[in-house]
Amino acid sequence: MGRKSLPSLPNSLLDKTGSNDSVVPLLLNAEQYYKEYIATSNPVGIKHNVRFLINLDALEHGEDLLSDDLGSWVQTKTKKKWYDTRCDKTGKVEKVVKVGDNSDALLVCRRPFVNASDRSLHKTIVDVTHPDGKHHNIVFVKYEFVGAPEHEVKVKQHSNEKSCSIPYLRTYKSTRNRLEKSAKEKGKGLKRAVHEVESEVGDLENCNSIGALPRNERQAKYLKSKDARGRIADPILAITEKMKTEEKNLLGVTALTMNRPKLFCLAMNRLKTL
């Protein structure tokens, strides 16, 4: 498969735990001082403990970050903290200092996840919002096996598909957008729409990952009629689309399963990447 640049971060650039104290200066300094470590593609099929700096602007859609060919994830919490920066004479951020809830400070959101197929695999996404409300385009993503050695994850079927053994792979948001647009073109059949999108993303041999491919005609049919049923609310759209940070106590989610859309009410501290 064709893969864009996905360099991993050397351990020397961060402390052992990847704390905000080391991550935030790295995010703020990355484009000027650490360009060689900025990834322009989303991670997929992770088998090792690894850390990345991801440029959301380089992805076709920010939500593609969530499609890592590792199935569903459970978000365990959201941690928000505010920081002031301390810079040297050149403007390089040397360190950050934690402050109280302050609209004039940097807002740092840390979102930890546990993989639904293999609970030893944890993922953390850290993003920064500037005092003017602008979201920093570089985000930090960490994959780590906890309590187990590094290994390949056997992705399970979606939890709502008890009768299906096919591993659940989240389709890229950019692919879903392409497929929806193609399927809604007048006079175009669903089979043709799927084939055209497959070709656009590179087919099986040249696509970025399996998640970049449209699933089937059933998915095309669902997306074609989606507007008639209302827009799909993604429970972790906040992590992407420039990392919106408002939280809700309860969220209604329409999720696409292998056979049909379903509606769920989910508590924000137990969200799945549906």
SSE diagram, text form:
Blueprint: H1 20-33, E1 38-39, E2 50-55, E3 73-75, E4 79-87, E5 93-99, E6 106-115, E7 121-129, E8 138-145, H2 173-183, H3 190-201, H4 203-206, H5 217-224, H6 226-229, E9 250-256, E10 261-267, E11 271-272
Parallel strand pairs: 1-2
Antiparallel strand pairs: 2-8, 3-6, 3-11, 4-5, 4-6, 6-7, 7-8, 9-10
Helix pairs in contact: 2-3, 2-5, 3-5
How would you describe what is shown here?
There is one protein chain. The chain is of the alpha+beta class. It has a domain at about 10-145. Helices cover about 20% and strands about 25% of the residues. The chain has helices at about 20-35, 175-185, 190-200, 205, 215-225, 225-230; strands spanning about 40, 50-55, 75, 80-85, 95-100, 105-115, 120-130, 140-145, 250-255, 260-265, 270. The strands form 2 sheets. Strands 1, 2, 3, 4, 5, 6, 7, 8 and 11 form a 9-stranded mixed beta sheet that branches. A two-stranded antiparallel ribbon has the order 9-10. The longest helix is centred in the first third of the chain and has 14 residues, at about 20-35. Mean pLDDT is about 80; it is low at about 230-265 and about 265-274.
